[in-house]
């Protein structure tokens, strides 16, 4: 929509907002839109996040383009104004022009708008949430314009009195996600709603979105090895895949990981990767010869601003910040962060004055293999430029070790000759995934998130861990997010009924032959490991052999003590 004939957005740096970009909107007459830019200024003063700001700007500009396409630049009648938002949501949901998914006579007006919008109707993931996001953004602007400019409301909300049954249903929904449910007033009798025409469209979209839902679609378990070892042709892409399927990270979360967040291995040979909030997570660095600690936002401001002082002012890496705060138009540096819920059980102190959280691996072999690949990636791309042969390191005064000499701290970088060394972007991640799926010929609807669903499937169905444990491992805030992985698969039903039948027949002795021990655990190639993990297994085998040689009375005493 940047090339829309109805508006143009120019992103400019504004020193009033600490270097943040201001989206200056020009309207169809070629002049800046006074009201919308005033509203954007207000949003930035209220410290709206970059992603939320973009949503509001996009919603309002798309609404303006829709209005111009349908009615031209003339003033709207009262009836046209009353139906404007509802008609806009129809255009978004069903698409326009040749892309319109509706052929009924009452939707003919959508076929000649010249907007060429793809329908959200076929996007199960986006349909309901995106439409509601548009409606919320328009309503917030509508209220602001009514207060500050006395304009009539486009989409007035209605105060609705809730019945006892509606209050009960509201509490029933809240109990799955609201940890402060006990603080909600039980006698709350009203709720703010959209006008009926808008509400009908949002409810219909939510209903379609929910059809056939429930079970999260994970990446096919039988093709995981093929995905990593064959489809992924470079070591960086293998690391990304393994982090998401073995460590349950969301798509953009690896982009926030620093090079030195990889802190070596644990006793099983698994990589120890520190996870932290990209803005408020704590970190330590050297400053004026002393070790200091602070938030990651402070780290960028105090350390990297000095480190990159010789870089030109206009270069995207001159003023670094958490990627949640950087603009998408700043070389695509923006990366979202939904948030992680850390459990007290995984917090500990190791000489630092704050809690550290590490990524959990669903299978130690994946964590061990990841570390082997990391060492290769570090040497090939982070410490050396593979295209010039130059060594690219500097000594870390904190650890005394040599680390990447790139002008930023992030682990994942572009490795092509043109963009070598630049931080990897979400756009590049999307391109990587399209390439991987094309090589495998897998379902086009599977996204990066299907790898995270594999982690949930593995913990729930293979390891059969309690739901509370999986909630911690996946950093879910609400049990309802974890509960979706606990469904009956054909394999688990078959195993349960076979076990019950053999027990009923008094033939439990046959169970090990029908359902071999450990048969659920997938077979991974021998190279999915490292020497430390193999040594760990050897130590376990030695302990087992030693235990078997103990006298029976000693074994019994040890078992009694462990109980």
Task: Describe it.
The protein is mostly helical. The chain has three domains: 8-155, no CATH class; 221-440, no CATH class; 535-562. Helix content is 43%, strand content 8%. It is built from 18 helices and ten strands. It has helices at 34-45, 50-71, 78-94, 127-149, 164-174, 196-210, 224-231, 235-247, 296-307, 364-382, 426-440, 449-462, 467-473, 479-483, 490-504, 511-514, 531-548, 552-562; strands at residues 8-13, 21-26, 158-161, 190-193, 262-265, 271-273, 282-287, 290-295, 393-395, 402-404. Strands 1-2 form a two-stranded antiparallel sheet. A two-stranded antiparallel ribbon has the order 3-4. A hairpin with a 2-residue loop joins strand 7 and strand 8 (290-295). The longest helix is centred in the first third of the chain and has 23 residues, at 127-149. It starts with 7 loop residues before the first strand and ends with a helix.
Tag the structure with descriptive keywords.
563 residues; mainly alpha; two-stranded antiparallel sheet; 18 helices; 10 strands; globular
Total beta-strand segments:
10
Order of helices and strands: EEHHHHEHEHHHEEEEHHEEHHHHHHHH
Major sheet characteristics: 2 strands, antiparallel
Instruction: Give helix % range.
Output: 40-55%
Mean pLDDT: 82
Bin the strand percentage.
5-15%
| Shape assignment | globular
Taking the alpha carbons of the first and last residues, their distance comes to 66 Å
Give the strand line-up of the largest sheet.
1-2
- The domain tally reads 3
- SS field, number of helical segments: 18
List unreliable stretches of 5+ residues. Answer: 211-215
Supply Rg: 28 Å
Q: Helix/strand-derived class?
A: mainly alpha
GO molecular function: DNA binding
Domain Tyr recombinase: 214-498
Protein name: Tyr recombinase domain-containing protein
InterPro entries: DNA_brk_join_enz, Integrase-like_cat_sf, Integrase_catalytic
């Amino acid at each position: 929509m940047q090339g829309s004939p109805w508006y143009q957005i120019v992103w400019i740096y504004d020193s009033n907002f600490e270097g943040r970009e201001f989206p200056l909107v020009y309207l169809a007459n070629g002049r800046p839109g006074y009201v919308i830019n005033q509203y954007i200024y207000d949003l930035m003063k209220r410290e709206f996040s970059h992603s939320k700001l973009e949503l509001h700007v996009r919603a309002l500009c798309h609404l303006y383009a829709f209005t111009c396409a349908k009615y031209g630049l003339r003033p709207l009648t009262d009836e046209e104004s009353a139906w404007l938002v509802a008609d806009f949501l129809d255009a978004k949901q069903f698409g326009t022009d040749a892309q319109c998914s509706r052929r009924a006579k009452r939707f003919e007006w959508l076929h000649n708008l010249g907007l060429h919008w793809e329908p959200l109707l076929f996007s199960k993931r986006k349909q309901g949430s995106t439409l509601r996001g548009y409606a919320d953004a328009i309503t917030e602007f509508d209220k602001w314009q009514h207060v500050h400019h006395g304009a009539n409301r486009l989409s007035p909300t209605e105060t609705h009195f809730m019945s006892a049954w509606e209050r009960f249903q509201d509490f029933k929904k809240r109990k799955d996600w609201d940890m402060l449910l006990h603080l909600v007033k039980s006698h709350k009798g009203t709720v703010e709603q959209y006008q009926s025409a808008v509400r009908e469209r949002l409810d219909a979209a939510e209903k379609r979105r929910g059809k056939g839902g429930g079970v999260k679609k994970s990446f096919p378990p039988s093709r995981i090895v093929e995905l990593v070892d064959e489809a992924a042709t470079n070591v960086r892409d293998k690391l990304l895949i393994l982090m998401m399927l073995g460590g349950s990270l969301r798509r953009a979360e690896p982009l926030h990981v620093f090079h030195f967040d990889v802190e070596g291995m644990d006793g099983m040979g698994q990589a120890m990767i520190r996870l932290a909030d990209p803005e408020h997570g704590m970190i330590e660095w050297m400053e004026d010869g002393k070790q200091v600690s602070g938030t990651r936002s402070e780290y960028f401001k105090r350390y990297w601003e000095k480190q990159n002082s010789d870089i030109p002012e206009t270069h995207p890496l001159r003023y670094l910040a958490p990627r949640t705060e950087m603009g998408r138009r700043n070389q695509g540096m923006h990366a979202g962060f939904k948030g992680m819920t850390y459990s007290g059980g995984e917090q500990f102190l190791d000489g630092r004055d704050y809690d550290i959280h590490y990524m959990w691996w669903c299978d130690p072999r994946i964590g061990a293999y990841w570390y082997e690949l990391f060492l290769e990636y570090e040497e090939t791309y982070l410490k050396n430029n593979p295209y010039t042969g130059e060594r690219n390191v500097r000594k870390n005064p904190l650890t005394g070790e040599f680390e990447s000499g790139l002008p930023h701290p992030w682990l994942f970088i572009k490795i092509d000759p043109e963009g070598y060394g630049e931080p990897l972007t979400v756009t590049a991640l999307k391109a990587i995934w399209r390439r991987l799926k094309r090589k495998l010929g897998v379902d086009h609807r599977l996204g990066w998130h299907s790898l995270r669903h594999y982690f949930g499937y593995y913990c729930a169905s293979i390891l059969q861990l309690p739901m509370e444990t999986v909630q911690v491992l996946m950093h879910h805030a609400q049990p309802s997010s974890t509960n979706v992985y606990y469904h009956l698969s054909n394999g688990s039903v078959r195993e349960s009924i076979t076990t019950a039948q053999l027990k009923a027949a008094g033939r439990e002795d046959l169970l090990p032959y029908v359902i071999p021990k450990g048969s659920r655990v997938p077979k991974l190639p021998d190279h999915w490991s490292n020497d430390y993990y193999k040594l760990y297994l050897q130590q376990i085998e030695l302990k087992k052999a030693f235990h078997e040689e103990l006298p029976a009375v000693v074994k019994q005493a040890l078992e009694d003590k462990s109980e």
